[in-house]
Amino acid sequence: MNTYVRMTEGRKDPDCIFCKIVAGDVPAEFVDESPGAVAFKDINPQAPVHLLVIPREHYGDVSELAATNPQLMAEMVDLAAQVAGDLADGQFRLIFNSGPRAGQSVYHVHGHVLAGADLGWTPA
Ligand code: DGP
């Protein structure tokens, strides 16, 4: 039994892959958690440390999360800093793609935590 899986009440989308990961219906490599969020390895890593930090409940993107639950947004940033300290040197990049032109492909808000290397900057 994955200890990071905990059923949440409230916001869920039955068709959302990240809601399924939170529920334990789709496997993921969890690395840490907080009361409202979990961190797991990205399936397609772009850096030595590439994690996704997501809320347990479903929000479509970072703007919706920040407007609806800014405390949870802050909790996700704290969790990102925690895992970057545990798995790298504590320095990290935290990216929220918002909208298809920005590269968002999963519409359950997630912060990409990139760390463990001197990161380049080539967004376009
Ligand atoms: P974005 O393109 O910003 O929406 O990022 C989505 C990320 O989610 C992308 O880097 C790949 C990752 N991803 C998609 N599906 C899965 C999955 O089933 N498991 C894991 N671990 N990561 C996934």
What global shape is seen?
A: globular
The CATH homologous superfamily of one domain:
HIT-like
Structural class: alpha+beta
pLDDT averaged over residues:
93
> Level of helix content?
25-40%
Strand content: 15-25%
Taking Cα atoms only, what radius of gyration do you get, to the nearest Å? 14 Å
> What's the number of helices?
3
Q: Taking strands numbered 1, 2, ... along the chain, how are they ordered across the largest sheet? A: 1-2-3-5-4
Describe the structure concisely for a colleague.
With 124 residues, the protein is of the alpha+beta class. It contains 3 helices and 5 strands, in the order αβββααββ.
Give a structural overview.
The chain has 124 residues and is α+β, with helices and mostly antiparallel strands. 26% of the residues lie in helices and 19% in strands. It has a domain at 17-88 and 97-108: HIT family, subunit A (2-Layer Sandwich). It is built from three helices and five strands, in the order αβββααββ. It has a five-stranded antiparallel β-sheet with strand order 1-2-3-5-4, covered by helices on one side. β2 (37-41) and β3 form a beta hairpin. The chain is globular, with a radius of gyration of 14 Å. The site of 2'-deoxyguanosine-5'-monophosphate has 14 residues, from β2.
